[in-house]
């Protein structure tokens, strides 16, 4: 029985170290993506002078919101790195920013009322799930005990 415990302990330790190494590589990739997104956003500022005003600012806004979505992904990865678990609220925030980015991309396009209703239902559902996740989080239950 003792040998099995040692093997289990070694496998668990190997898994934890492997996960941390891979997560560190992922965090480095996310930081590189954020840097690239910021550079690309500044590059798109040239559109103000060569295209229509609203088109240029819509592109700029989508670029900024995309970078913010990647920042939310970074927060999720860092939370897992420090706490060993993924926070649902960070994932929901990421999805909400991404959905709002898509809404901004279609701002000046014609949308059917069904598509608009689906987006509204999605955003309201995400907001509801986020409220539930905050209300019933493991941390709040620990504080009550």
TrEMBL record:
Which branch of life, at top level? Bacteria
Regarding the membrane, this protein is recorded as: Multi-pass membrane protein
Gene Ontology CC annotation, any one: plasma membrane
Keywords of the record, alphabetical order, are: Cell membrane, Membrane, Transmembrane, Transmembrane helix
Principal location listed in the UniProt entry: membrane
Q: Which residues cross the membrane?
A: 21-43, 55-78, 90-108, 114-133
State the compartments where it is located. Answer: Cell membrane
Query: Which Pfam families has this protein been placed in?
Result: PsiE
Tell me the protein's name. Answer: Phosphate-starvation-inducible E-like protein
